Amino acid sequence: MAAVASPPQNEPAPGEGPAAALVRSYLEALARGDRAAAATYLAQGTPTETFMNPQARIESIRSASTGPQQYQVTADVQTAGGEYYVTFKVGQGPDGLQITDHYSIKPQ
Questions:
Q1: CB-CB contact of 33 with 44 (8 Å)
Q2: Which domains does the chain show, CATH number per domain?
Q3: For residues 34 and 28, what is the distance between their CA atoms, to the nearest angstrom?
Q4: Distance CA 83, CA 94 (A)
Q5: Beta bridge partners of 60
């Protein structure tokens, strides 16, 4: 069985915990067009955020603990097509924190 490389773990921004840093790394990978790198942050599946591109800006990221090694992370992303709110569930995987679920909405 081939070894799977762990995604790079970025240092958290000031005031940002490890779950928020993981989500920021995921969104930044999508923004630079590296969907393969972004996929490594997901526990399963492939990235679905088609609105992320080099012009997208992460306005804010907030993280809240929902249990031991379980987090809900919300991100506010501004794009050329408008603003998106993205919600992530982050949990402990075999090699560290992973995104276990996520969805995005675009307010009217």
A1: no
A2: 18-105 (3.10.450.540)
A3: 9
A4: 33
A5: 76
State whether residue 90 is helix, strand or coil: strand
What tokens does 70 get?
A: 């379980």
Question: What's the rounded Cα separation, in Å, for the pair 52 and 14?
Answer: 23
Write out 81-98 in H/E/C secondary structure. Answer: CEEEEEEEEEEEECCEEE
**Mean pLDDT of successive 10-residue stretches along the chain, which has 108 residues:** 41 71 97 96 93 95 94 96 96 94 92
- State how far the Cα of 103 lies from the Cα of 10, in Å rounded to an integer: 22
Write the single-letter amino acid at 93: G
- Is the Cβ–Cβ distance between 52 and 31 less than 8 Å? yes
Q: 7: alpha, beta or left, given left = phi > 0 and alpha = psi -120 to 50?
A: beta
- First vs last Cα of the chain: how many Å apart? 47
pLDDT value of position 10: 45
